[in-house]
Predict the structure.
Amino acid sequence: MATHALNPAAATYSRGRLYEWLTTTDHKKIGIMYVINSFLFFLIGGVLALVVRTELAAPGLQFLTDEHVYNQMFTMHATMMIFLFVIPMLAGLGNYIVPLQIGAPDMAFPRINALSLWMLPLGGILLVSSFFTGGTAAAGWTSYPPLSLDGPLKSPGSGQDLWIVSLVLIGTSSILGAINFLVTIFKMRAPGMTLFRMPIMVWTVLVTSVLVLMATPVITSALVMLFIDRNYGGTFFDPFGGGSAVLYQNIFWFYSHPAVYVMILPAMGVISEVLPVFSRKPLFGYKAFIFATAGIGALGFSVWAHHMFTTGSVFLPFFSLLTFLIAVPTGVKMFNWVFTLFRGQLTFSTPLIFAIGFLSMFLIGGINGAFSASVPVDFALHDTYWVVAHIHYVLFGGSVFGIFAGLYYWFPKMFGRMLDEGLGKVHFVLMFIGFNLTFFPMHMLGLQGMPRRIADYASDAGWNDWNMAATIGGFLIAASILPFIWNVFVSLRNGKIAGDDPWEGNTLEWATASPPPPYNFDHLPEIRSERPVFDARHAQTGH
Amino acid sequence: MSTSPRKRPAPDVLIAGLVVVILVALVLAVFLTGWGKTLYPPDAVTQQARDVRGLYDIVFAIGVAIFLLVEGLIVWSVLRYRRRPTDTELPAQTHGNNLVEVIWTVIPTAIVLYMFVISWQTLNYVDAVSASPDIRIHAIAGQFQWQFEYLDRDGKKVASQLAPAYDAETGAGGMAVPVGRSVQVTLDSPDVIHAFYVPRFLFKRDVIPGQTNTFEFTVDAAEAGQVFRGQCAELCGTGHRSMLFSVIALSQSDYDTWLKALIEKSNATPAPLPSGTVLNVTAEGIKFDAASLEVPADAPFAIAFSNKDPAGVPHDVDIRDSSGTVVENQETINGGTSANYAYTPLPAGTYMFFCSIHANMTGTLTVK
């Protein structure tokens, strides 16, 4: 092997710590930077949400007297939370965890991995820069034309163009990441790690990557057409030039509905790692869970038009039926999780508490979704605050609780120290109460007829109390983030030393040091099931 | 339990207990204080809406039952299966059970198929449009106002209503419909996407440029004399929240009177221009053609106003003083039409003229 001597200079050459992080191709450092970048945009997006909630606290325009600014606020809130927080945060967790869980030394394409990371802050900076160049996009995160086209009272100015370019960049990053995950999972598994011995987290990242790979190019095409319409006189989506406004919606949702699964499947993966470990039981129905995940992924491509029931140009029964059917694999997963807890021995560490928060809240998000699958009921609820409640029970009650479960669960692996349990529980309780106080009343507001995306409402419409409650809840959620940030800063320095396997984990990431060395593993345990570390721990006791 | 009653409970128990207390308190608060009603849509006022409401009640009942079952299982597992200090042995390592997994796949499939079928049945009724409805209305939603054109049986326009909000004092404005009659609404937009939404109809339909959507409803006879709020439900720009309208349910005879008055008003010749100062103002491309106007103080004046935007884009020329108080309020006119606006004498000073629909359409009016 050693056919020539190492250049002596290379051995002594030491890089600065900052330079080391900026140029790294180590999936673990990249994963951590994904998480940090995403968390920063979570904070910005959260502040924007508080601005929106403050304006809506009481009737009248008190705070944002210019409605155009209000429209910018909710547009940027949703854009950042979806494209710069939830999707990349889960991709970041996957980036850190997937190679470890399959016993690989790194991702298949480390430099492409670094490229997909660094496109994210670039896209984010472009998006944020529109605040300083005459106003951001203000046509909602969906950016339906003709409102998003150029023209007076539509979307003049560069904000909408920057939004398009930013999303194309982020989308490209997602596509590169998805290819990287797929190749890593199919080609770099350790000996013995068959597909049906892979941790559920890896399975959900696998299915998510397929969704990203098939759907993201489609929205990119919609964005490019929108850009042509705005800047080069195209009329793809301009009904007065021979185009179709509804065409955009079809293309947009063909991506954006699967994108909901991109945002929830890896969070489900996190939960499926946490629940077994803290119940001391295997996941109930491992294979059924995998088939359900694949089923959700497949069905996810045939339900996009349920966002368009009120357009009058959709074949309603087809999309209604498939939307109802997607509840079945989701329900299967819910029962699998609950029966994992059932007859277990539960230790209520922070990751498990967040995981149970996920179960309870995602349950509501699944049930109130069935209302919208019923087309006539959707005629009443569509584009009201009911839908805002639904999406937040799925993406906050589901994805965000799942993300925090994952952060508390893997923080010891990433940094070698434990997060403080007390602060973690304060975080959970505040967030859980704040979340429900914010989003549950939105069901009532929607039923009583409050449309989404309005800057103001009449004081006699009967919406005052619930709006005030939602705003108070919003500030409680914001307050709940403070103990988390404090916890991270304190625990990085003074947290209890974690050791290799603080939770008695099941999967391979717990078979190496915390934090793992750059090459991940000195040696691997034998892989004979989906719980190799469990098997090694209990080898003598006959389980 | 081996622990004695006086022993302090573990923090885990406290937190689990807290979560349960909060959940129970929320459910109790919602159902005991009359807030439970807010979990249902408002009372339906059309025949179609009553069908939707019946469907909602079934979906809601199924949803609550599933929630209580699964949430109950979660809470019970959390309370019952806490790890105790005595738990040194692993619990039974159950990997699954084919029978229960088949059961919880088949039963939910049956439930969602049932919900799909009843939804489809309701849809066929709610979404139906007849060839010969009793009343035809053409609603045009432009940024940021509604217009309602009343059509005869052949679809010819007989009257146009430009004031979409009902004025309780004068009885003017709004979209009037007779109770007990089938009303067919066709929807068009001259600019961006809007949505026709009346919460008490439990219904909305998008208004899409380049595509005419149609729906039908029949207001219950008992609702005569009632006024229902309506609002644009699809983000349409800076004036989205102010795209309000009201639907007035009238008895057939009141409706006939109302429509006759509207037809007369629609056919009336525009008021002749008063003597004195007359200015020409044109609106086109959501812009006035003048940035500043000048009129003499303490004398009546008029504006011959021409709206050259497409039909469905209404404008007017109102005036507010330097403190922001609106001192002259004219009625909006439809795109493609013109009107003569007469204004009362104003004291000398600087004013602003503006379009009440489009916040960006403003100019300076100097009175001296």
Summary: Chain A touches chain B through 97 residues (CB under 8 Å). The two ends of chain A are 42 Å apart (CA to CA). Confidence is low (pLDDT under 50) at residues 8-12 of chain A.
